[in-house]
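All the exercises in this workshop are built on plain-text protein records. Sequence and backbone structure share a record, each on its own labelled line. The question running through the whole workshop is how a given chain folds. The record below serves as our worked example for the rest of this section.
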Amino acid sequence: MNKILEIIKDEKSIAIAGHVRPDGDCFGSCLAMYQYLSQTLPDRQIDVYLEEVVPVFAFLKDSDKIKTSVEMEKEVPEYDLFISLDCGSKDRLGFAEPVLDCAKKVVNIDHHVSNTKFGNENHVIGDSSSTCEILFSLMEEDLITREIAEALYLGIVHDTGVFRHSCTSRKTMEIAGFLIEKGIPFSKIIDKTFYEKTYVQNQLLGRCLMESIRILDGKVIASCIDEETMKFYGAGSSDLDGIVDQLRVTEKVEVAIFAHETALQEYKVSMRSNGIVNVSKIATYFGGGGHVKAAGCKMKGRYHDVINNLVGHIANQLENSKSERE
């Protein structure tokens, strides 16, 4: 794939969608794509499908144009082209999956190493920092507006952990510099969407830290939020952002695990690694996926059983790593 406009050709209707529970990279890439195509191809029908409009990301231009599950039409619309962004498998598109199934052509743009290559065209770059970084390379630089730059910067910032994660490269920093030169409020974007927390978010974070447990001589740290606690605080899944990353920076920890109970004995699990353990491999084993150092999956059972199953795989990798070093 060379440039985005080269793959559009004669398609008159285009759908854009990202994964369920959209994060900064998903939200930013979808709106950056929407704005880019809308300004260069004003005669086309272009729609964005996302599960929700995340309030903290709603400052991005055209966030009010997003079609959510609540606004979904009774009959599945048919598009000439469906563009999937930042989504490792089509079932992760949630309510937008039927839209993909009805589309004449599917283009899959992503950076997850566990991507299942479900498109007619797959542009998956596993060592890229973010889908937004990939999109930048597919766009004509002189067509990138300040608003598009804001969306791309948001995605890069969130998937690199504000340029702290190992996926950050020289290219990543050069792209970020280009976007900053567009006059975007880069410091405000970082503070408002990455660091700033509500009182409830801080309470949940504090509770998770206080109730965390250490395993394998402190090499693994795990914590959990159950349904009852979420209801008590009136919290949503977005209020849990950043918890697993805070657990990860605990001294001597190799892997952090955060489990969020979504139904009785059903958990959404997030894992973060500090380098030795490939958590994507573990997540994929349990039906999930992600990156080498950041991955997730869904699991069923008692919380302690979930953790024990994960820790068994982590222990194996740590032991193998130790044997290789010796």
